[in-house]
Specification:
The structure holds 2 protein chains of 2 kinds. Helices cover 15% and strands 31% of the residues of chain A. By secondary structure, chain A is an alpha+beta fold. Chain A has a 7-stranded antiparallel sheet with strand order 7-6-9-4-1-12-11, with no helix packed on it. In chain A, strands 13-19-17-18-15-14-20 form a 7-stranded mixed beta barrel. By secondary structure, chain B is an alpha+beta fold. Chain B has 2 domains: 4-78, Gyrase A, domain 2 (2-Layer Sandwich); 88-238, Cyclophilin (Beta Barrel), CATH 2.40.100. Chain B is 25% helix and 30% strand. Chain B has helices at 23-38, 65-78, 104-111, 115-123, 217-229, and strands spanning 4-7, 12-16, 44-49, 53-58, 88-96, 126-132, 139-142, 157-160, 164-168, 171-175, 179-181, 184-188, 209-215, 236-238. In chain B, the strands form 3 sheets. Chain B has a 7-stranded mixed barrel with strand order 5-12-9-10-7-6-13. In chain B, strands 1-2-4-3 form a 4-stranded antiparallel sheet. Chain B has a two-stranded antiparallel sheet with strand order 8-11. Chain B is elongated, with a radius of gyration of 20 Å. Classes of the chains: A alpha+beta, B alpha+beta. The A-B interface holds A 20-27, 126-127, 135-138, 184-188, 233-241, 258-261, 265, 268-271, 293-294, 296-297, 299-301, 304 and B 6-12, 14, 16, 19-21, 45-55, 57, 60-61, 64-65, 131-138, 140, 177, 196, 201-202, 205-206.
Protein backbone atom coordinates (compact mmCIF):
# COMPACT_ATOMS: atom_id res chain seq x y z
CA UNK A 1 0.00 0.00 0.00
CA UNK A 2 1.12 3.52 -0.75
CA UNK A 3 -0.68 6.24 -2.68
CA UNK A 4 -3.85 6.52 -4.76
CA UNK A 5 -4.10 9.16 -7.47
CA UNK A 6 -7.37 11.05 -6.92
CA UNK A 7 -6.57 13.54 -9.68
CA UNK A 8 -3.47 13.23 -11.85
CA UNK A 9 -3.11 16.92 -12.82
CA UNK A 10 -1.95 17.80 -16.31
CA UNK A 11 1.11 15.60 -16.70
CA UNK A 12 2.38 13.55 -13.79
CA UNK A 13 4.92 10.79 -14.47
CA UNK A 14 7.22 8.52 -12.50
CA UNK A 15 10.84 9.49 -13.18
CA UNK A 16 14.08 8.23 -11.73
CA UNK A 17 17.53 9.50 -12.74
CA UNK A 18 17.05 8.08 -16.25
CA UNK A 19 17.52 4.93 -18.31
CA UNK A 20 21.20 4.83 -19.15
CA UNK A 21 23.14 2.29 -21.21
CA UNK A 22 20.43 1.77 -23.84
CA UNK A 23 20.91 4.81 -26.05
CA UNK A 24 23.00 2.59 -28.34
CA UNK A 25 19.76 0.67 -29.07
CA UNK A 26 17.76 3.83 -29.78
CA UNK A 27 16.22 4.16 -26.32
CA UNK A 28 15.80 7.71 -24.96
CA UNK A 29 17.08 8.05 -21.37
CA UNK A 30 14.02 10.02 -20.14
CA UNK A 31 14.42 10.97 -16.45
CA UNK A 32 13.68 14.29 -14.71
CA UNK A 33 13.56 17.54 -16.69
CA UNK A 34 14.99 19.48 -13.72
CA UNK A 35 17.68 17.20 -12.32
CA UNK A 36 18.64 19.58 -9.51
CA UNK A 37 15.15 19.79 -7.98
CA UNK A 38 14.74 16.04 -8.49
CA UNK A 39 18.00 15.17 -6.70
CA UNK A 40 17.23 17.56 -3.82
CA UNK A 41 13.76 16.03 -3.33
CA UNK A 42 15.30 12.57 -2.97
CA UNK A 43 18.11 13.73 -0.70
CA UNK A 44 15.65 15.51 1.63
CA UNK A 45 13.49 12.37 1.70
CA UNK A 46 16.54 10.34 2.71
CA UNK A 47 16.72 8.41 -0.56
CA UNK A 48 19.46 7.46 -2.93
CA UNK A 49 19.35 10.53 -5.17
CA UNK A 50 18.57 8.45 -8.29
CA UNK A 51 15.37 6.94 -6.75
CA UNK A 52 12.05 7.19 -8.61
CA UNK A 53 9.84 10.20 -7.74
CA UNK A 54 6.85 11.97 -9.29
CA UNK A 55 7.32 14.81 -11.76
CA UNK A 56 4.28 17.11 -12.09
CA UNK A 57 3.92 19.69 -14.85
CA UNK A 58 2.07 23.05 -14.60
CA UNK A 59 -0.72 21.64 -12.44
CA UNK A 60 0.00 19.01 -9.84
CA UNK A 61 -1.83 15.94 -8.63
CA UNK A 62 -4.17 15.10 -5.79
CA UNK A 63 -2.82 12.09 -3.92
CA UNK A 64 -4.39 10.08 -1.10
CA UNK A 65 -2.00 8.35 1.29
CA UNK A 66 -2.93 4.84 2.38
CA UNK A 67 0.11 4.51 4.60
CA UNK A 68 2.30 6.88 6.62
CA UNK A 69 5.42 8.08 4.82
CA UNK A 70 7.86 10.97 4.68
CA UNK A 71 7.92 13.05 1.51
CA UNK A 72 9.74 16.09 0.13
CA UNK A 73 8.36 18.47 -2.50
CA UNK A 74 10.74 20.59 -4.61
CA UNK A 75 10.77 22.49 -7.91
CA UNK A 76 7.84 24.62 -9.07
CA UNK A 77 5.60 26.17 -6.42
CA UNK A 78 2.16 24.59 -6.91
CA UNK A 79 0.96 25.73 -3.47
CA UNK A 80 0.93 22.20 -2.01
CA UNK A 81 -1.45 21.47 0.86
CA UNK A 82 -2.41 18.54 3.02
CA UNK A 83 -6.15 18.34 3.65
CA UNK A 84 -6.33 22.09 2.98
CA UNK A 85 -3.40 23.13 5.21
CA UNK A 86 -0.34 24.48 3.34
CA UNK A 87 2.64 22.15 3.50
CA UNK A 88 6.20 23.52 3.27
CA UNK A 89 8.28 22.77 0.19
CA UNK A 90 11.98 21.83 0.28
CA UNK A 91 11.45 20.07 3.58
CA UNK A 92 10.99 16.49 4.75
CA UNK A 93 7.38 16.12 5.95
CA UNK A 94 5.60 13.14 7.49
CA UNK A 95 2.21 12.47 5.90
CA UNK A 96 -0.28 10.23 7.65
CA UNK A 97 -2.45 7.53 6.15
CA UNK A 98 -5.80 8.92 5.08
CA UNK A 99 -4.41 12.40 4.29
CA UNK A 100 -4.76 13.94 0.86
CA UNK A 101 -1.84 15.88 -0.64
CA UNK A 102 -2.89 18.37 -3.31
CA UNK A 103 -0.66 20.34 -5.64
CA UNK A 104 -2.48 22.98 -7.67
CA UNK A 105 -1.55 25.22 -10.57
CA UNK A 106 1.95 26.69 -10.49
CA UNK A 107 2.03 30.23 -9.08
CA UNK A 108 4.54 31.17 -11.79
CA UNK A 109 7.70 30.16 -9.95
CA UNK A 110 8.74 27.22 -12.15
CA UNK A 111 6.53 24.73 -13.97
CA UNK A 112 7.71 21.30 -12.78
CA UNK A 113 7.37 20.02 -9.22
CA UNK A 114 8.93 16.86 -7.78
CA UNK A 115 7.54 14.74 -4.98
CA UNK A 116 9.94 12.17 -3.51
CA UNK A 117 8.77 9.44 -1.12
CA UNK A 118 11.08 8.06 1.57
CA UNK A 119 12.16 4.53 0.66
CA UNK A 120 11.07 5.04 -2.96
CA UNK A 121 8.13 3.88 -5.05
CA UNK A 122 7.34 0.21 -5.77
CA UNK A 123 7.59 0.54 -9.54
CA UNK A 124 9.15 -2.29 -11.56
CA UNK A 125 12.32 -1.35 -13.39
CA UNK A 126 12.40 -1.83 -17.16
CA UNK A 127 15.92 -1.91 -18.63
CA UNK A 128 17.26 -0.94 -15.22
CA UNK A 129 15.08 2.14 -14.69
CA UNK A 130 11.73 3.36 -13.37
CA UNK A 131 11.71 6.39 -15.70
CA UNK A 132 8.63 6.85 -17.90
CA UNK A 133 9.13 7.33 -21.65
CA UNK A 134 5.59 7.97 -22.86
CA UNK A 135 6.54 8.14 -26.55
CA UNK A 136 7.54 4.47 -26.54
CA UNK A 137 5.21 3.32 -23.76
CA UNK A 138 8.21 2.37 -21.66
CA UNK A 139 8.80 2.27 -17.89
CA UNK A 140 7.00 3.99 -15.00
CA UNK A 141 3.28 3.23 -14.72
CA UNK A 142 2.66 1.09 -17.84
CA UNK A 143 4.68 3.57 -19.89
CA UNK A 144 2.10 6.34 -19.49
CA UNK A 145 1.31 9.41 -17.39
CA UNK A 146 -0.61 8.81 -14.17
CA UNK A 147 -4.40 8.56 -14.30
CA UNK A 148 -7.16 8.84 -11.73
CA UNK A 149 -7.35 5.67 -9.64
CA UNK A 150 -3.73 4.60 -10.16
CA UNK A 151 -2.23 2.99 -7.08
CA UNK A 152 1.50 2.97 -6.39
CA UNK A 153 2.99 1.13 -3.44
CA UNK A 154 5.81 2.39 -1.20
CA UNK A 155 8.95 0.25 -1.38
CA UNK A 156 10.12 0.95 2.21
CA UNK A 157 8.09 3.74 3.88
CA UNK A 158 9.51 5.58 6.89
CA UNK A 159 8.05 7.61 9.73
CA UNK A 160 11.36 9.02 10.88
CA UNK A 161 14.67 10.07 9.33
CA UNK A 162 17.90 11.30 10.93
CA UNK A 163 18.02 15.10 11.48
CA UNK A 164 14.32 15.35 10.68
CA UNK A 165 14.16 18.92 12.05
CA UNK A 166 16.98 20.21 9.81
CA UNK A 167 15.93 18.42 6.60
CA UNK A 168 15.01 21.62 4.88
CA UNK A 169 16.38 24.14 2.39
CA UNK A 170 15.39 27.57 1.16
CA UNK A 171 13.08 27.04 -1.84
CA UNK A 172 14.50 27.81 -5.27
CA UNK A 173 13.54 30.90 -7.25
CA UNK A 174 13.23 30.17 -10.96
CA UNK A 175 13.58 32.60 -13.89
CA UNK A 176 10.62 34.78 -14.78
CA UNK A 177 10.05 36.07 -18.32
CA UNK A 178 13.73 35.92 -19.29
CA UNK A 179 16.73 33.76 -18.64
CA UNK A 180 20.36 33.40 -19.62
CA UNK A 181 21.77 30.02 -20.53
CA UNK A 182 25.46 29.26 -20.77
CA UNK A 183 26.49 27.26 -23.82
CA UNK A 184 29.54 25.24 -24.85
CA UNK A 185 30.04 25.40 -28.62
CA UNK A 186 29.96 22.21 -30.71
CA UNK A 187 29.65 19.56 -31.98
CA UNK A 188 28.84 21.22 -35.34
CA UNK A 189 29.47 24.95 -34.77
CA UNK A 190 31.77 24.70 -37.83
CA UNK A 191 28.60 24.39 -39.96
CA UNK A 192 28.03 28.12 -39.28
CA UNK A 193 30.16 31.14 -40.16
CA UNK A 194 31.72 33.04 -37.26
CA UNK A 195 29.27 35.84 -37.96
CA UNK A 196 26.27 33.46 -37.62
CA UNK A 197 27.72 32.07 -34.38
CA UNK A 198 28.05 35.62 -33.06
CA UNK A 199 24.43 36.29 -34.02
CA UNK A 200 23.36 33.20 -32.13
CA UNK A 201 24.92 34.60 -28.96
CA UNK A 202 24.12 38.29 -29.53
CA UNK A 203 20.46 38.00 -30.38
CA UNK A 204 18.29 35.94 -28.10
CA UNK A 205 15.25 33.85 -28.89
CA UNK A 206 11.81 33.24 -27.49
CA UNK A 207 10.55 29.94 -26.07
CA UNK A 208 7.73 28.77 -28.36
CA UNK A 209 4.65 26.77 -27.46
CA UNK A 210 6.34 23.63 -28.76
CA UNK A 211 8.05 22.83 -25.49
CA UNK A 212 7.68 19.35 -24.04
CA UNK A 213 9.77 16.68 -22.34
CA UNK A 214 11.47 15.88 -25.65
CA UNK A 215 12.62 19.36 -26.59
CA UNK A 216 12.13 23.09 -26.55
CA UNK A 217 11.66 24.89 -29.87
CA UNK A 218 12.88 28.48 -29.93
CA UNK A 219 11.74 31.32 -32.16
CA UNK A 220 14.35 33.74 -33.45
CA UNK A 221 13.35 36.87 -35.30
CA UNK A 222 15.97 36.08 -37.90
CA UNK A 223 16.61 32.37 -38.51
CA UNK A 224 20.21 31.11 -38.36
CA UNK A 225 21.86 30.32 -41.68
CA UNK A 226 23.99 27.23 -42.21
CA UNK A 227 27.03 27.04 -44.43
CA UNK A 228 25.59 23.82 -45.89
CA UNK A 229 22.00 22.56 -45.90
CA UNK A 230 21.70 21.99 -42.16
CA UNK A 231 21.86 18.20 -42.37
CA UNK A 232 24.73 16.06 -41.09
CA UNK A 233 25.48 12.35 -41.05
CA UNK A 234 23.30 11.29 -38.08
CA UNK A 235 25.27 11.32 -34.83
CA UNK A 236 24.67 11.28 -31.07
CA UNK A 237 22.61 13.77 -29.05
CA UNK A 238 23.08 14.78 -25.42
CA UNK A 239 20.87 16.52 -22.82
CA UNK A 240 20.95 20.19 -23.79
CA UNK A 241 22.14 19.76 -27.42
CA UNK A 242 20.96 22.75 -29.48
CA UNK A 243 19.87 21.43 -32.87
CA UNK A 244 19.45 23.87 -35.73
CA UNK A 245 17.35 22.22 -38.46
CA UNK A 246 17.33 23.64 -42.03
CA UNK A 247 14.67 26.24 -41.07
CA UNK A 248 17.24 27.93 -38.79
CA UNK A 249 15.07 27.85 -35.64
CA UNK A 250 16.92 26.13 -32.76
CA UNK A 251 15.55 23.18 -30.76
CA UNK A 252 17.09 22.37 -27.36
CA UNK A 253 16.97 18.62 -26.72
CA UNK A 254 15.71 17.65 -23.25
CA UNK A 255 14.97 14.59 -21.09
CA UNK A 256 13.00 12.53 -23.66
CA UNK A 257 15.47 13.42 -26.45
CA UNK A 258 16.24 10.96 -29.23
CA UNK A 259 19.62 9.29 -28.75
CA UNK A 260 20.69 10.29 -32.29
CA UNK A 261 19.76 12.90 -34.88
CA UNK A 262 20.66 14.28 -38.30
CA UNK A 263 20.50 18.07 -37.77
CA UNK A 264 23.49 20.33 -37.07
CA UNK A 265 24.04 21.19 -33.42
CA UNK A 266 25.57 24.62 -32.83
CA UNK A 267 26.19 24.09 -29.11
CA UNK A 268 24.95 22.56 -25.88
CA UNK A 269 23.40 24.21 -22.83
CA UNK A 270 25.66 23.41 -19.86
CA UNK A 271 24.30 20.88 -17.37
CA UNK A 272 23.98 23.25 -14.41
CA UNK A 273 21.85 25.70 -16.44
CA UNK A 274 19.39 23.15 -17.86
CA UNK A 275 17.03 23.35 -14.84
CA UNK A 276 16.60 27.09 -15.54
CA UNK A 277 15.25 26.20 -18.98
CA UNK A 278 13.14 23.23 -17.93
CA UNK A 279 11.42 25.36 -15.25
CA UNK A 280 10.65 28.11 -17.78
CA UNK A 281 7.53 28.57 -19.89
CA UNK A 282 6.48 29.50 -23.42
CA UNK A 283 7.00 33.18 -24.18
CA UNK A 284 10.11 33.61 -21.97
CA UNK A 285 13.12 35.24 -23.66
CA UNK A 286 16.37 33.28 -23.74
CA UNK A 287 19.88 34.66 -24.13
CA UNK A 288 22.95 32.54 -24.68
CA UNK A 289 26.44 33.13 -23.31
CA UNK A 290 29.43 31.16 -24.54
CA UNK A 291 31.59 29.42 -21.92
CA UNK A 292 34.53 27.02 -22.14
CA UNK A 293 34.25 23.27 -21.60
CA UNK A 294 36.62 23.76 -18.64
CA UNK A 295 34.23 26.19 -16.90
CA UNK A 296 31.18 24.05 -17.73
CA UNK A 297 32.82 21.00 -16.15
CA UNK A 298 34.07 22.99 -13.12
CA UNK A 299 30.48 24.15 -12.51
CA UNK A 300 29.16 20.62 -13.01
CA UNK A 301 31.57 19.24 -10.42
CA UNK A 302 30.79 22.08 -8.00
CA UNK A 303 27.05 21.25 -8.29
CA UNK A 304 27.79 17.59 -7.53
CA UNK A 305 29.90 18.55 -4.51
CA UNK A 306 27.05 20.70 -3.17
CA UNK A 307 24.64 17.79 -3.45
CA UNK A 308 27.18 15.41 -1.85
CA UNK A 309 27.70 17.83 1.05
CA UNK A 310 23.96 18.21 1.60
CA UNK A 311 23.52 14.45 1.61
CA UNK A 312 26.40 13.95 4.04
CA UNK A 313 25.16 16.68 6.39
CA UNK A 314 21.61 15.29 6.54
CA UNK A 315 22.51 11.65 6.90
CA UNK A 316 25.29 11.87 9.51
CA UNK B 1 40.78 11.43 -41.95
CA UNK B 2 42.06 11.93 -38.42
CA UNK B 3 39.61 11.52 -35.58
CA UNK B 4 37.76 14.68 -34.58
CA UNK B 5 36.67 15.19 -30.98
CA UNK B 6 33.49 17.22 -31.20
CA UNK B 7 32.39 18.57 -27.82
CA UNK B 8 28.75 17.81 -27.14
CA UNK B 9 28.16 19.57 -23.85
CA UNK B 10 29.97 18.95 -20.55
CA UNK B 11 29.21 15.23 -20.31
CA UNK B 12 29.59 13.91 -23.88
CA UNK B 13 31.95 13.95 -26.84
CA UNK B 14 31.28 12.80 -30.38
CA UNK B 15 34.36 11.02 -31.76
CA UNK B 16 34.03 11.41 -35.51
CA UNK B 17 36.01 8.84 -37.46
CA UNK B 18 35.01 9.68 -41.03
CA UNK B 19 32.84 11.95 -43.11
CA UNK B 20 30.93 9.41 -45.19
CA UNK B 21 28.47 6.57 -44.70
CA UNK B 22 30.53 3.49 -45.51
CA UNK B 23 31.22 0.04 -44.14
CA UNK B 24 34.88 0.96 -43.64
CA UNK B 25 34.18 4.05 -41.51
CA UNK B 26 31.40 2.34 -39.56
CA UNK B 27 33.68 -0.58 -38.72
CA UNK B 28 36.20 1.88 -37.27
CA UNK B 29 33.39 3.18 -35.06
CA UNK B 30 32.52 -0.38 -34.00
CA UNK B 31 36.20 -1.18 -33.50
CA UNK B 32 36.61 1.74 -31.08
CA UNK B 33 33.47 0.72 -29.22
CA UNK B 34 34.67 -2.90 -28.92
CA UNK B 35 38.05 -1.68 -27.67
CA UNK B 36 36.48 0.61 -25.03
CA UNK B 37 34.04 -2.11 -23.97
CA UNK B 38 36.76 -4.75 -23.48
CA UNK B 39 39.14 -2.38 -21.73
CA UNK B 40 37.02 0.47 -20.35
CA UNK B 41 38.26 3.98 -19.54
CA UNK B 42 37.11 4.89 -16.06
CA UNK B 43 34.37 7.54 -16.17
CA UNK B 44 32.71 6.56 -19.46
CA UNK B 45 29.02 5.88 -18.76
CA UNK B 46 27.75 4.80 -22.16
CA UNK B 47 28.61 4.80 -25.84
CA UNK B 48 26.35 5.32 -28.84
CA UNK B 49 27.72 4.16 -32.21
CA UNK B 50 26.32 5.95 -35.28
CA UNK B 51 27.28 5.86 -38.97
CA UNK B 52 30.60 7.66 -38.72
CA UNK B 53 31.07 8.61 -35.08
CA UNK B 54 31.00 7.20 -31.58
CA UNK B 55 29.21 9.30 -28.98
CA UNK B 56 30.94 8.84 -25.63
CA UNK B 57 28.98 9.93 -22.54
CA UNK B 58 31.18 10.42 -19.45
CA UNK B 59 31.37 11.73 -15.91
CA UNK B 60 33.55 14.87 -15.73
CA UNK B 61 34.06 14.28 -12.00
CA UNK B 62 35.99 11.12 -12.94
CA UNK B 63 37.66 12.18 -16.18
CA UNK B 64 37.87 15.64 -17.75
CA UNK B 65 37.49 16.29 -21.47
CA UNK B 66 41.21 16.79 -22.19
CA UNK B 67 42.26 13.61 -20.44
CA UNK B 68 39.48 11.56 -22.06
CA UNK B 69 40.53 12.81 -25.50
CA UNK B 70 44.13 11.76 -24.87
CA UNK B 71 43.08 8.31 -23.66
CA UNK B 72 40.84 7.71 -26.68
CA UNK B 73 43.57 8.96 -29.05
CA UNK B 74 45.91 6.33 -27.58
CA UNK B 75 43.32 3.64 -28.28
CA UNK B 76 42.81 4.84 -31.84
CA UNK B 77 46.53 4.53 -32.43
CA UNK B 78 46.82 0.99 -31.07
CA UNK B 79 43.46 -0.71 -31.64
CA UNK B 80 42.98 -3.65 -33.95
CA UNK B 81 41.12 -2.95 -37.12
CA UNK B 82 37.87 -4.76 -37.82
CA UNK B 83 38.53 -5.64 -41.44
CA UNK B 84 36.35 -8.66 -42.16
CA UNK B 85 32.81 -8.24 -43.36
CA UNK B 86 31.84 -11.15 -41.13
CA UNK B 87 29.33 -11.16 -38.39
CA UNK B 88 25.92 -12.53 -37.66
CA UNK B 89 23.17 -12.63 -40.27
CA UNK B 90 19.58 -12.69 -39.01
CA UNK B 91 16.74 -13.82 -41.26
CA UNK B 92 13.76 -11.49 -41.05
CA UNK B 93 10.61 -12.89 -42.69
CA UNK B 94 8.71 -10.25 -44.67
CA UNK B 95 5.24 -10.34 -46.18
CA UNK B 96 5.29 -7.97 -49.18
CA UNK B 97 2.45 -5.77 -50.42
CA UNK B 98 -1.21 -5.58 -49.41
CA UNK B 99 -2.06 -3.76 -46.20
CA UNK B 100 1.38 -4.53 -44.75
CA UNK B 101 3.19 -2.97 -47.72
CA UNK B 102 0.93 -0.34 -49.28
CA UNK B 103 3.71 1.22 -51.39
CA UNK B 104 5.02 -2.00 -53.00
CA UNK B 105 3.42 -1.41 -56.40
CA UNK B 106 4.41 2.28 -56.44
CA UNK B 107 8.00 1.27 -55.68
CA UNK B 108 8.10 -1.27 -58.52
CA UNK B 109 6.76 1.43 -60.83
CA UNK B 110 9.34 4.03 -59.64
CA UNK B 111 12.03 1.43 -60.32
CA UNK B 112 10.43 0.46 -63.67
CA UNK B 113 10.47 -3.28 -62.86
CA UNK B 114 7.80 -5.88 -62.15
CA UNK B 115 6.65 -6.42 -58.56
CA UNK B 116 8.32 -9.87 -58.60
CA UNK B 117 11.61 -8.36 -59.76
CA UNK B 118 11.33 -5.60 -57.13
CA UNK B 119 10.87 -8.21 -54.40
CA UNK B 120 13.86 -10.14 -55.73
CA UNK B 121 16.04 -6.99 -55.69
CA UNK B 122 14.97 -6.19 -52.14
CA UNK B 123 15.32 -9.69 -50.69
CA UNK B 124 18.30 -11.12 -52.60
CA UNK B 125 21.00 -9.32 -50.59
CA UNK B 126 22.19 -8.98 -47.01
CA UNK B 127 21.84 -5.60 -45.28
CA UNK B 128 24.41 -4.21 -42.87
CA UNK B 129 22.98 -2.63 -39.71
CA UNK B 130 24.89 0.64 -39.33
CA UNK B 131 23.18 1.76 -36.14
CA UNK B 132 20.04 1.76 -34.03
CA UNK B 133 18.38 5.10 -33.38
CA UNK B 134 15.23 7.21 -33.38
CA UNK B 135 13.22 4.62 -31.41
CA UNK B 136 14.09 1.51 -29.38
CA UNK B 137 15.36 -1.16 -31.77
CA UNK B 138 14.93 0.96 -34.93
CA UNK B 139 17.59 -0.47 -37.27
CA UNK B 140 19.27 1.65 -39.95
CA UNK B 141 20.36 -0.98 -42.50
CA UNK B 142 21.82 -0.87 -46.01
CA UNK B 143 22.73 -3.31 -48.79
CA UNK B 144 25.67 -2.83 -51.10
CA UNK B 145 24.16 -4.25 -54.31
CA UNK B 146 21.44 -3.10 -56.75
CA UNK B 147 20.36 0.13 -55.02
CA UNK B 148 16.94 1.52 -55.90
CA UNK B 149 16.80 4.96 -57.50
CA UNK B 150 13.93 6.52 -55.56
CA UNK B 151 14.09 8.36 -52.23
CA UNK B 152 11.29 9.40 -49.87
CA UNK B 153 7.63 9.94 -50.66
CA UNK B 154 6.60 13.47 -51.55
CA UNK B 155 4.61 13.91 -48.37
CA UNK B 156 5.37 11.92 -45.22
CA UNK B 157 2.70 9.88 -43.44
CA UNK B 158 1.72 11.05 -39.96
CA UNK B 159 1.70 7.48 -38.65
CA UNK B 160 2.83 4.13 -40.04
CA UNK B 161 2.41 0.75 -38.35
CA UNK B 162 5.04 -0.83 -36.14
CA UNK B 163 6.84 -3.83 -37.72
CA UNK B 164 6.76 -2.09 -41.12
CA UNK B 165 9.75 -2.44 -43.45
CA UNK B 166 10.54 0.76 -45.34
CA UNK B 167 12.92 1.47 -48.24
CA UNK B 168 14.78 4.16 -50.15
CA UNK B 169 17.93 3.93 -52.33
CA UNK B 170 20.03 1.10 -50.83
CA UNK B 171 18.49 1.49 -47.38
CA UNK B 172 15.83 -0.63 -45.70
CA UNK B 173 14.87 0.07 -42.09
CA UNK B 174 12.93 -1.96 -39.53
CA UNK B 175 10.28 0.14 -37.78
CA UNK B 176 9.62 -1.13 -34.22
CA UNK B 177 6.71 1.15 -33.17
CA UNK B 178 4.08 3.30 -34.88
CA UNK B 179 5.74 6.56 -35.98
CA UNK B 180 5.60 9.32 -38.60
CA UNK B 181 7.55 8.31 -41.71
CA UNK B 182 8.31 9.66 -45.17
CA UNK B 183 9.75 6.44 -46.58
CA UNK B 184 7.93 3.90 -48.75
CA UNK B 185 6.51 0.85 -46.99
CA UNK B 186 7.03 -2.41 -48.91
CA UNK B 187 5.99 -4.99 -46.32
CA UNK B 188 5.73 -6.07 -42.72
CA UNK B 189 7.41 -8.65 -40.53
CA UNK B 190 5.56 -10.88 -38.06
CA UNK B 191 8.56 -10.64 -35.70
CA UNK B 192 8.60 -8.27 -32.72
CA UNK B 193 11.42 -5.79 -33.33
CA UNK B 194 11.53 -4.55 -29.75
CA UNK B 195 10.07 -6.55 -26.84
CA UNK B 196 10.61 -4.87 -23.44
CA UNK B 197 9.78 -8.10 -21.60
CA UNK B 198 12.83 -9.92 -22.99
CA UNK B 199 16.23 -9.79 -21.37
CA UNK B 200 17.61 -8.57 -24.71
CA UNK B 201 14.64 -6.60 -26.11
CA UNK B 202 16.15 -5.88 -29.52
CA UNK B 203 15.74 -8.12 -32.59
CA UNK B 204 18.78 -6.70 -34.39
CA UNK B 205 21.94 -5.03 -33.07
CA UNK B 206 24.34 -2.58 -34.73
CA UNK B 207 26.99 -4.41 -36.76
CA UNK B 208 24.73 -7.38 -37.53
CA UNK B 209 23.39 -8.24 -40.99
CA UNK B 210 19.76 -8.64 -42.02
CA UNK B 211 18.47 -11.00 -44.72
CA UNK B 212 14.84 -10.44 -45.67
CA UNK B 213 13.00 -13.67 -46.48
CA UNK B 214 9.75 -13.35 -48.48
CA UNK B 215 6.73 -15.14 -46.94
CA UNK B 216 3.04 -15.26 -47.84
CA UNK B 217 0.11 -14.16 -45.69
CA UNK B 218 -0.50 -17.71 -44.39
CA UNK B 219 3.12 -18.05 -43.26
CA UNK B 220 2.95 -14.55 -41.80
CA UNK B 221 -0.05 -15.52 -39.63
CA UNK B 222 1.62 -18.77 -38.56
CA UNK B 223 4.89 -17.06 -37.54
CA UNK B 224 2.97 -14.31 -35.75
CA UNK B 225 1.18 -16.98 -33.72
CA UNK B 226 4.49 -18.72 -32.92
CA UNK B 227 5.98 -15.39 -31.83
CA UNK B 228 2.98 -14.82 -29.58
CA UNK B 229 3.43 -18.27 -28.02
CA UNK B 230 7.15 -17.65 -27.62
CA UNK B 231 8.10 -20.67 -29.74
CA UNK B 232 9.57 -18.83 -32.75
CA UNK B 233 13.35 -18.82 -33.07
CA UNK B 234 14.99 -16.26 -35.35
CA UNK B 235 17.20 -18.02 -37.93
CA UNK B 236 20.78 -16.87 -37.55
CA UNK B 237 23.98 -17.77 -39.36
CA UNK B 238 27.54 -16.54 -39.86
CA UNK B 239 27.94 -14.26 -42.85
CA UNK B 240 29.45 -16.09 -45.80
CA UNK B 241 28.49 -19.53 -44.50
CA UNK B 242 25.19 -19.81 -46.33
Amino acid sequence: MGIVIENPGILTTVQDEGRFGYQQFGVSPAGPMDTKSFYIANILAGNDRSEGALEMTFQGAMIRFEKDNIIAITGADMSPNIDGTPVPMYQAVLIHAGSVLTLGMTNGNGCRAYVAFAGGLAIAKVMGSKATLMRNELGGMDGRKLEKGDKIGFAAPKTNLPNMETRKLVPETFPKKELTLRVVRGPQDYEFTEEECRKFFWYGAKISNEFDRMGCRLEREEPLHHIGDGNIITDGISFGSIQVPPNGQPIIMLADRQSTGGYTKIGSVISVDLPLLTQSMAGYKVRFVEVSIKLAQDLYIRRLNELDNLERKLNQ
Amino acid sequence: MDAKFLISGDTAVSVQLGDEISLEVNQKVRGLMVNLTKDPINGITEMVPTYASLMVHYRPQVIRFGELKQEIEKRLGSMEKITDCGGIVKEIPICYGGELGPDLEDCARFENVSVQEFIRMHSAHEYYTYMLGFAPGHAYAARFEEPFHFKRRESPRVKIAGQSIVVQLNLSNLIPFPQPCGWNIVGGTPLTICDYSKEDPFLVHAGEWIKYVPINQREYDKIKEDVRKGTYRVKTYEKGVK
